[in-house]
Write a structure and sequence with these properties.
This protein is of the alpha+beta class and 480 residues long. 32% of the residues lie in helices and 21% in strands. Helix 2 packs antiparallel against helix 5, helix 5 crosses helix 6 and helix 15 runs antiparallel to helix 16. It binds flavin-adenine dinucleotide and FE2/S2 (inorganic) cluster (FES) (2 copies). The site of flavin-adenine dinucleotide (FAD) has 34 residues, from strand 6, helix 8, helix 13, helix 14 and strand 14.
Length: 480
């Protein structure tokens, strides 16, 4: 029986008594002396600390890249954590490098080398899990890895070389893991990890204490309260039954509050209902952050520019709150009623968000999301907005519209949505709609832009919804 937090680190079983909230990177570097995992920012921005996280799933182990600086040690329990040292312990070729590392050397894609272990781990995760191994998706896999030296051109060449060499044998293979082991991308011990994890004793990880800090992905918590978390008792919501699932119920889709954004992008249920969703979710942070950041965390963080909050408001989401106190009940309400003021939520002491649910879209449903940030990826929005419409051809039956960055809360544009109901889309209707929306917002000037800029931005983004959803009905010249 494990005495502390037990998991497999590279090829070794480990069992540690360090506090649950210790950042995984500190365990890896300070306790285990595996210094190939680097620390750049400690805020999830640079990707230097990226490790592989293997989770048992359906008889195999599913690997994802995560940043170890925003990862609670306790959440490694029962999983496989792989650092760059764990990728080539057996000198897979004469140079001692894996094909991913060799591609970096061949293309001169490493200069000071500080970012290189993180890049190698991210690309290895991509090779382990990506079904199509397309070049654009490989670039997406490393969008959370910052390099200060190379200018990225040589890294892109390394990616192209890698795919040229590995894509044909990997797509032709009947099983991915044995093929990767055969090619030396991962070492042979990976083949035995699923059985070794099955043999581990399950651990009690969910604290019953209602005052413990509710931790989902930790991507906000570690940035905001990193140093103090090691001393805190944690309630790991992703380990709470049903909290990370996505399931259908009557005419709705339920999304467990602890489901990470990557799970939403891969959910057949969600992508069948909203095929555009993965494309919109790709605008949220980076692959490593999406692999951890949850829907519930995005909402409870209550950022006025939370991308998920804005999308879910426009999808007319409901929210389910569960009390953790003995005899506690589930409360539910419309998400739009949950945001009460700046960082103020209708969340009672001892309650957590258990799920969000959205109505199944009908035949005439249309949904669109727009976001402008200082960088296209790995940045939160200056202004974002989403719209959900039920239409009878070009006549809007009902509308739900939301915007972020223009009020103290992720804003449901109530009057603007009501204005659209029953109207046929035309340039004059869209103009009037934007005027109504502007009467509801109160942006402030801050580091993400001046108030006037945000107002102008929202006007254009609201207009863009209609350009996208009703092609041919409006032209760029109709912009108010
Ligand atoms: C590098 C980086 C880039 C980012 N980019 C974006 C971006 O582009 N767009 C964006 O919207 N956000 C972005 N974020 C912010 C963050 O990733 C999201 O807000 C994320 O969804 C938070 O989820 P989490 O599970 O990590 O929350 P956590 O950090 O685990 O929790 C956040 C807060 O919510 C509470 N909490 C979490 N889940 C629950 C629950 N179920 N019930 C009650 N309380 C709960 C926690 O106690 C904590 O107070 C970024 C963050 C980083 C570090
Ligand atoms: S140290 Fe920069 S992402 Fe972790
Ligand atoms: S090679 Fe120096 S940071 Fe990337």
């Amino acid at each position: 029986m494990a005495a502390g937090i037990a998991f497999i680190l590279n090829d070794q079983e480990v069992d540690t008594a360090l506090p649950a909230g210790t950042a995984l990177v500190d365990f890896i570097r300070a306790d285990q002396r595996l210094t190939g995992t680097r620390v750049g920012c400690r805020e999830g921005d640079c990707g230097a600390c990226t490790v592989l996280l293997g989770t048992p799933a359906g008889g195999r182990v599913r690997y994802r890249a995560v940043v170890s600086c925003l990862f609670p040690l306790a959440d490694a329990a029962g999983r496989h954590v792989v650092t760059v040292e764990g990728l080539n312990p057996e000198a897979p070729n004469a140079s001692g490098l894996t094909p991913v590392q060799q591609a970096f050397v061949s293309e001169g894609a490493s200069q000071c080398g500080f970012c290189t272990p993180g890049l190698v781990v991210s690309l290895t995760a991509f090779l382990l899990e990506d079904p199509g191994l397309e070049s654009d998706d490989a670039v997406t896999a490393i969008e959370g890895n910052v390099c200060r030296c190379t200018g990225y051109v040589s890294i892109r060449r390394a990616v192209e070389r890698l795919l040229r060499e590995l894509r044909p044998p990997l797509l032709g293979a009947s099983a991915r893991l044995p093929a990767l082991i055969g090619l030396g991308v991962v070492p042979a011990y990976f083949a035995g990890i699923a059985a070794r994890l099955r043999a581990q004793q399950p651990q009690a990880l969910v604290r019953k204490n209602a005052v413990a800090v509710a931790m989902a992905g930790g991507t906000d918590l570690y940035v905001q309260r990193g140093p103090e978390l090691a001393a805190q008792e944690l309630r790991l919501l992703s380990r709470q039954e049903g909290f990370a699932a996505i399931w259908p119920a009557a005419d709705r889709i339920h999304i467990g509050a602890a489901a990470p954004i990557s799970d939403l992008m891969e959910s057949r249920l969600l992508t069948a209902a909203l095929p555009q969703l993965p494309g919109f979710l790709r605008l949220v942070s980076s692959t490593q952050i999406r692999n951890r950041a949850t829907v519930g965390g995005n909402i409870v963080n209550a950022s006025p520019i939370g991308d998920l909050s804005v999308m879910l408001l426009a999808l007319d989401a409901a929210i389910g709150l569960r009390s953790l106190r003995p005899g506690g009940r589930i409360r539910q309400m419309k998400l739009r009623d949950f945001f009460l003021g700046y960082k103020k939520l209708d969340l009672r002491p001892g309650e957590v968000v258990a799920w969000l649910s959205i109505p199944l879209p009908g035949n005439g449903s249309r949904f669109h999301f727009e976001k402008v940030a200082r960088r296209r990826h790995q940045d939160i929005a200056s202004v974002n907005t989403a719209i959900g419409l039920d239409c009878d051809n070009d006549r809007i039956v009902t509308a739900h519209v939301a915007a972020g960055g223009v009020a103290p809360v992720p804003l449901f544009l109530k009057k603007a949505a009501a204005f659209l109901a029953g109207r046929e889309v035309s340039s004059s209707v869209v103009r009037e709609f934007i005027t109504v929306a502007e009467s509801e917002i109160a942006p402030i000037s801050d580091v993400r832009g001046a108030a006037a800029y945000k107002k102008a931005l929202l006007r254009r983004l609201l207009f863009a919804h209609f350009l996208e959803l009703f092609p041919g009905r409006l032209g760029a010249g109709d912009l108010p």
